[in-house]
Amino acid sequence: MRAPMTRRAMWFEAINRNGKFITGELAADSIEDALDQLASRELFVRHIQPRDDIQPRDDRSATSWDLQFTGVYRFGTRQLAILLRELATLSAAGLTIADCLELSAENATTTRARSALTTQVDKVRSGLQLSVALLPHLPSKHAAIEGLIAAGEENGDLPAAVNSAAAMIEAQLSFSSRLQSALVYPAFLVVSSLVAFAIVFSTLIPTLAPLFDGHEDAMLAALQWLLALQSIIADAGDGLLLLAVALLAVTAALIVTRSGQRWLMRVVYGLPIYGPICRPRDVVLAVDTLAVLLQHRVEMRKSLSATRSVASEPGLRQTLADAIERVNEGEALGSALERADALPSLIIRAVRSGEASGQIPKMLRNIGLVLNQQLERRIERTVSSVGPLLTLFIGGLVGFIVIVVVESLAAINSLAGL
Questions:
Q1: Sheet holding 21-28, edge to edge
Q2: What distance in Å separates the CA atoms of residue 192 and residue 403, rounded to the nearest whole number?
Q3: CA–CA distance, 382 with 378 (Å, rounded to integer)
Q4: What are the distances in angstroms from CA 315 to CA 137, 288, 351?
C-alpha cells in the first residue's frame, strides 16, 4: 500500500485581485498543490517555498523590504536580462530549459548566482515548471516575468515568451543607461560647484576678514554678507550634521514600512527634475508590460496585477489597483482606466479602440512607442535646458565671488596706501 503523502507548510508571497501584496502560509502536499490552492483563491503568486527552507518569522505582515532578508538570492536587473537572453537564444536553438539553465550556471559570474541557477536546474529536471523555479529569485519589480513565462509554458511558446521577457528587461536597462548618461553633466556641475563653494567659504573668504581689522567701515557690503554667511554655516556645522543623521535615520525607518515607502515615493516623484521624467517613464513601462502580457494571452486580471508590481509612482499604482477592482466587477478595461487622472487620455483612447477591434495588445504596443518617443524628447529638452541654466547660475555665483575678492583686495591696497 502506498504511504500517504505528508502535507507540508508552505510560505508564499502573492498579489490579490485588488493588487494588494500579501504573505501567508498554507498546508499542501507539494508546491504544485499549493499553487493550485492559491489559484483557486484568485491570487497572483510571486514566491512560494516550503516553510522548513526558511528561517522562522513571527511577523506575518512582512513588507517587501523585510523579504530581502529571507536568504533567497534574487537576480539583479542586469543579471536577469543576461539570463533571459541566454535562455531565449539557447531554447530557440532546440536545447531543453534544463540544459539552458545548466549552461547559464556554468557562465555565471558569481557564486550565489551559480548556486541559484544550479538549484533551478535540479527543480526543472524534477518536473517543476521554469516559471515556478525562477519565481523565488525574481526581484519584486520584475514579478511580471513570472506571469509571462508561465503563459509561454501554458501556450506552448516558451521561447517566444522568454524572448519577450528579455527584450522587456533590456529596454528598461537601455532607458536607465540613457537617463544616467544624460544626467552625468548636470550632476558633475552640481558636485563641482558644491566642492568649489566649500573651498571658497572655508579658506579664501575667512582670510580676507583680518585684513580689515580697524577699518571695518571700508569693508564691502558683499564681503560682509559672505563673512556672515560663512559664520552661520560654521556655527551650524554640528547642527547640520545632526540634522543629516536624523534625516537618514527617519528615511531608514520609513523604508521598512509599506506606508513609509509610499510616502517617500510621493516625495521623490515630486522632485522638480526627477518627477517630470520618471512619472511618464512609469506610464510607458506599465503600458509596455501590459501589452506584452496580453500579447502572450495572460489573463487580464493577472496582467493588471503584474503591471502594477512594476510601477513605482504612487498615483499610477493606485490607478491600476482601482482598475483591477473594476475589471473584477465586470467593467471593461477602457472604462475602468478612464476614471483615473494618472494616465494620459491617449492611452484611454487606444485601449477603447483596441477593445472595439479586439487588438488591445497591438494598440498598447503602438501607444507605448508613441509615449516612449515623447519621453525621449522630454529628456532631451530637460537636459538641454538644465545644463545651460546650471552653467549660468554657477558662473554667476563664481563671478560674484571673484568680483567681491578683487574689490576687497583693491580696498586693502587703498588702505595700505593711506
A1: 21-28, 8-15, 44-50
A2: 20
A3: 6
A4: 28, 18, 19
Q: Give this prediction's pTM.
A: 0.67
Amino acid at site 297: R
**Helix 111-125 and helix 97-107, axial crossing angle in degrees, nearest 10:** 170
310/287 Cα distance (integer angstroms):
11
Rounded CA gap, 146 and 148, in Å? Answer: 5
CA-to-CA dists, residue 381 to 273, 334, 357, 367, angstroms: 11, 31, 36, 21
Residue 281 C-alpha cell reads as 517613464
In this prediction, residue 304 has a pLDDT band, given cuts at 50, 70 and 90, of confident
∠ Cα 285 287 289 (to 5°)? 65
Which one-letter DSSP state was computed for residue 236? T
Alpha helices in 108-257 (DSSP H): 111-125, 130-134, 144-155, 158-199, 205-208, 221-235, 237-255
Cell numbers 568649489 correspond to 196
DSSP string, 303-363: HHHHHHHH---HHHHHHHHHHHHHHHTT--HHHHHHT-SSS-HHHHHHHHHHHHHT-HHHH
- The number of beta carbons lying within 10 Å of the beta carbon of residue 64 is 16
Which of 31, 68, 43 is CA-nearest to residue 299?
43
CA nearest neighbour of 178 among 382, 391, 410, 400: 382
Q: Is the pLDDT of residue 147 over 50?
A: yes
Place of cell 533590456: 170
* First and final C-alpha spacing in the chain: 116
Cα dihedral 95, 172, 77, 187, rounded to 10, equals 150
Distance CA 215, CA 203 (A): 21
pLDDT tens per residue across span 32-75: 777 777 777 777 776 677 755 433 333 333 333 333 444 578 88
